[in-house]
Amino acid sequence: MIHSKSEVAIVVLNFNGIALLKRFLPTVVQYSKNHTIFLVDNASTDASVSYVQTHFPSIKCIVHEENHGVSKAYNLALEQIHATYYVLLNNDVLVTEHWLQDMLFLMEEDKSIALCQPKICSLVAPNWFEYAGAAGGFIDVRGYPFCRGRIFNNLEQDTGQYNDKRAIFWASGACLLVRARAFHALGGFDPLFFAHFDEIDLCWRAHLFNWKVYYCGSSTVYHLGGGSLPYTHTYKTYLNFRNRALMLHKYHSFFFCTCMERFFWDVLAAFRMCLLGKFAHGWAIIKAQLDFFKLRKQCKTYYMHRFYLLPTVYTGNMVIDFFIKKKRRFSELLPKRFT
After folding, report:
1. Crossing angle for the helix pair 279-295 and 255-275, nearest 10 degrees?
2. pLDDT per position as a tens digit, 67-79
């Protein structure tokens, strides 16, 4: 089924999230009156779809017959939606009044911006940034992602220090404004990732083809986090480590050396998990390494030779800076060179 064209299509991905839809969807509807809203359901076994159809008849539903994860579910859905912009929105995000206005203005002003995210704060602690995106994503040369406002698990309080608009390396999939033309030109998300790192992978590809990725600090949303898959779940740990390895394999020009170093740090991370008594997470990291070697041949490789020259790539060692040098805030990284 091909849906009618609209300027902005807000696409909410859902799997067995009826409780989240009841909590967050009314605000999305309230503050998005001029835009078309879609629910993309990943074969939920609860009453998610019937609830939306009954209580929000204006929302268009795309129902998958199986759970495709994040990547493939969005790809299949967006093939059916004709719009100028897509807003990919988690079902556990609370939007605010005018949440889209400034981001849309920014992308209309600069047609070379492919992806944009708002400020993402915690729903539980609204004065603090939230893990999944915070004030825009960056990455170090070893493929460790971090954010302004969040490095590893350390969060910063929002005191207005990141109320700017600026280029970033990756934008969060929790609330992601995407230029539809760019999304399809880039081939969409990589379905091999299933979930996690899929948006970072897409942003990396955008840089490769000279698109920009931006953060808009005058737009704010609040993210519950872990709505579909809790942060403490071992499968999330598995996906994070496996997909980071796959992503480095896809793009890194000096992959062999980086792969060996990455493998060392990941094994060290598994050992640390075991020391903390988190044996299941330690095994998830090891399994991620094993499965990476099985899946790597399925990746299309790009080898971006000037990756480390991008101004949003951190040239320091994030693991050493965070765990050994105790640099916990984004501002503390600035003496190290962002190229």
Report:
1. 160
2. 999 999 999 999 9
